Every structure is written in C-alpha cells, then in structure tokens.
Amino acid sequence: MYRTDNKNYKARESMGSAFARSCLGQFIIFAAIMLVLMIIASLTVPSEQEMDAKVTDDIRQWIESPDSIEGDKSSNDWIDNTVSNIGFTFTEAGPNPNEKLLQRYKKTNRLEQYEHTFFRTMYLYNNFSADGVRSSIGIFGMVIPLINYANFMPKEGVLQNNFNKPPKSTVIPDDYVGSNPHLKPYHYKGDPEN
C-alpha cells in the first residue's frame, strides 16, 4: 500500500490488470480470442456430404412449405425468408416429398460447393442466376441456409398475353406545345432550323 496526496491509502495495481487495461493489452487479448475462434472454425468445417444433405433437406422444406410460394409476392419477403431459414436450420423435411416440384427443381438447378479455410459455401446455379446465388454457409459445424424460393423455382403462369395487340405509341410530335394557345415553339432569332 502507498499513500496518495489526499492522505488515503491505495493498493498498487498488479502488472496483469495494468496490461489488460492498456490499449496494447486489449488488442493482444482480442487477437488471441480471434485466433482461438479461427482455429475452432477451421476444425469444425462441415463435410461435403453433410453440406449437401442439409442444403437438399432445406430446399425440400422450402418446396413443401405451403406459404413459400405466396411469400415472394410481398415487398417484405426477406423477413419471411429469414424466419423460414432460421427455422429450417433446426428442422427436417417430412418423409413424403412433393415429387412433381422436386423433379422440377432438379431439372433446372445444380449445387456447387466451395471450400474456404474457415468455412464452406454452397452456390445454386440455374437459368435465373448464371453467376450463382449463395444458398448456404457451413461454419462451426452448422449449415446455415440462405435460400429464397424465388431463386430456384421458376414462376408459373402467363408472362405476357394479347400478342396481336399493337404496342402503345408514346411519341409526341415536336410541334405540340400543350393546350395554351399563346405558347409557340421557340426558335433562336426566328430561325425555324434552330
């Protein structure tokens, strides 16, 4: 103990607590925690088979979900997708898949995996997204789906009708100046060419 100027006694701070409170000490502690997390992440990357099985199961759940088709019509469908994906992380698809929709999915889509140092990603390729859409991330032994029903199932229904109808003309003649009779086309110094 040592005496301070105001005649109070104070215990000396230990070297460890002084280091933990310093900026360098906090940076080193943060770097050590991140190093431990990266080592754990690299050791717990899901296998290819586990990723493939889980993503296929998540896609089956999306196909079998009765509100997934209606969900992509709203402007806030990202909320529905996020909630569904969180739920699909912890659930499994039913034993009886909808074979018609499953065959339609398999006909137009393919999945590819990419391995990284600390995680694994899976991309969905089809005619809608030739560059691929990230459909899941595997990290810390979990497979987190990022699936949207609109990314892998083609829309059904008529996209255009009235094929014999001529297109609407939106060309406005140059001399039209509105309904005010006092307005006339402007010509620079009275020259009609300018």
Structural class: alpha+beta
DSSP helix count?
7
Poorly predicted spans: 68-72
Alpha carbon gyration radius: 32 Å
Cα separation of the termini: 94 Å
Q: Give the ordered list of helices and strands.
A: EEHHHHHHEEEEH
Helix content: 25-40%
Shape: flat
Structure explained in plain terms:
- With 194 residues, the protein is an alpha+beta fold.
- Residues 68-72 have low confidence and may be disordered.
- The protein contains seven helices and six strands.
- Helix content is 39%, strand content 14%.
- It has helices at residues 15-21, 23-43, 48-64, 68-71, 77-89, 99-108, 149-152; strands at residues 2-3, 9-10, 110-115, 120-125, 133-139, 142-145.
